Amino acid sequence: MRGGGGGMMDDGGVEHAQIPNSFGHELRACLRCRLVKTYDQFRENGCENCPFLDMDKDRDNVVSCTTANFTGIISLMDPNRSWAARWLRIGRFIPGCYTLAVSEELPEEYQVKTACLHSCKNCDATL
Ligand SMILES: [Zn+2]
Q1: Ligand 1 centroid vs 23 CA: distance in angstroms?
Q2: Residue 11 covered by a domain
Q3: Ligand 1 centroid, distance to 47 Cα (angstroms)
Q4: 111 located within any domain
Q5: CA of 49 to the centre of ligand 1 (A)
Q6: Separation of CA 1 and ligand 1 centre (Å)
Q7: For residue 21, how far is its CA from the centre of ligand 1 (angstroms)?
Q8: pTM (predicted TM-score)
Q9: Each residue of 24-44: pLDDT tens digit?
Q10: Residue 20 domain-assigned?
């Protein structure tokens, strides 16, 4: 018996992020959640934790919201229970590959978008 507690394995939802299918120089990390995927994966599917960054809709967003400038990769299969995830403060993100540190920040225009999303969900119309 594994799991227990009646956990459902629902293939319909996003259970975990895509795992990078290559570890070359095209790897990039999301500046907001530090998820690591290839440029192509971000461009095609966006960031699973940050869909509002619209990376899958505009590749300029991929360039702006991700960086190739990061250090170390950690693979998280169970962020809820991982001490490393808590330490990195990514425990509420979905399982996937994450970087330990990025040296850049999310551009201000995207930070506003993110902050807005958290503080007021209805302000899109008034902006
Ligand atoms: Zn992200």
Answers
A1: 18
A2: no
A3: 5
A4: yes
A5: 5
A6: 34
A7: 17
A8: 0.74
A9: 668 999 999 999 999 999 999
A10: no
